[in-house]
TrEMBL record, chain A:
InterPro entries: DUF1989, UAAP2
Signal peptide bounds: none
Domain DUF1989: 17-185
Organism lineage string: Bacteria, Pseudomonadati, Pseudomonadota, Gammaproteobacteria, Oceanospirillales
Source superkingdom: Bacteria
Organism: Oleiphilus messinensis
Protein name: Urea carboxylase-associated protein 1
TrEMBL record, chain B:
The name this protein goes by in its record: 5'-3' exonuclease
Pfam families for the chain: DUF1989
Hydrolase recorded as keyword: yes
Residue span(s) of domain DUF1989: 18-188
Keywords: Exonuclease, Hydrolase, Nuclease
GO molecular function, one term: exonuclease activity
Amino acid sequence: MIKESPRACSTAIQRDIVPAGDYYIQIIKQGQTVRLVDLEGNQAADTLFYSANDPGERYSATDTIREQGNLYLTAGSILKTNENNDLLEIVADTCGRHDTVGGACASESNTVRYDLEKRGMHACRDSWMLAIQEHEEFGLGKADITHNINFFMNVPVTPEGKLTFEDGISAPGKYVELKALMDTIMLISNCPQLNNPCNGYNPTPIEVLIWD
Amino acid sequence: MTLDVINPNAAECRYQTTLNSGQHWSLLVRRDIQMTLTDLSGGSNVGMLLYNPTQLSEKYNAPDTLKCQHTFKLTRGHCLYSDMGRIFCSIIEDTFGWHDTVCGNSHSSHIQARWGARNYQQDRNDWHQNGYDSFLVELAKYNLTRRDMAANLNWFSEVGASDDGQLALKRHSKKDDRVTLRFEMDTLVVLHTCPHPLSEAGHYPRTSVQLELMQSQPMAADDPCLNYCQENQRGFENNSLYHFGLQTLYRSMP
Ligand SMILES: [Zn+2]
């Protein structure tokens, strides 16, 4: 569902650019709103969320999918934890649909999906691995790197049960906005994938804005 | 429950047990063993998680499994992938045709809302168990916690999606439907027989599933899982590297 935000960029308390292939980790306080902007279009922001007070409680794709009875995320979606609690709500969305089935790219899955020799290529999961190594203060480990959201990605399912990776329905300047319903750690890998159309074979930066 | 304990390596050796609904089970299943699940009653659901027993952080990865094979449903020919690009097991037989791996588990709150609270005092072993707690119990036996829980499989439950993503539990297996998994590496299998989280059955389902283990046949060159797609061929190459089977790994070289 397309829903524009009433928030002006000028009133944000924090603005950051995340280049393609980098990670971004940040605490969003309960009641704060975060906006992710697809600056150049066709980008994928592979994102995980955790309770800041108890990182063992974290975003769960299956709980979210089951509770809303729908595969796609958009304005109005409540993101659920593995304890089936409310973690965040998508309060604005100018893209219309975000994927949470396709998961993140990884060096290991790249060998299967594309070529055994692609293992050396940079991938989202490696960005997350570096993030948890460089930020021990969040208390995250490999077991916490789970099934994520791919903001701006379009992964439709056909009636015959096929999973397809379509060109993005996003475009330059499209955004999604989330309100934190508990203190939340947000961990983004701005996808470096060069092998599929999820980011048009050309990974580009995203912007992160936060409002009180 | 039977097992040829005199000669457990014999090709004809089998183990079989029956799980009623609401149970949980686990076993370290070795490479080259196959597991057949048969729905003895119809209407069953089997939740399943897979781990590498020598490196428990390597676990079943639903997204990689689906996107590597460009599929939303799981059926014969599909392989079940770990997060490390390897194949835990292959689906070598399936009479049902469409198994779910995106809907996860029921929590106790769902079961209570639909069919009443779990109550051992009153119901003994017919109590209303839920999938999430069942996994927690079984995982604790291996020092695993909720942090280690991944998106699970739901055998015998077909969940389809409409154009706009609305999900529906469309079909359960009928009596005698079965699925056979051939294990391609040693795998810790954790499962429960609790209802599918989208089940709207009038009563808490009372079903039974037979679980059978036996030696598998070696994979042939025309194996349907190996040849399902090029991705699976590369997945098996990763397994060969894991097992250090270099003759397979480099079979494409002159
Ligand atoms: Zn990626």
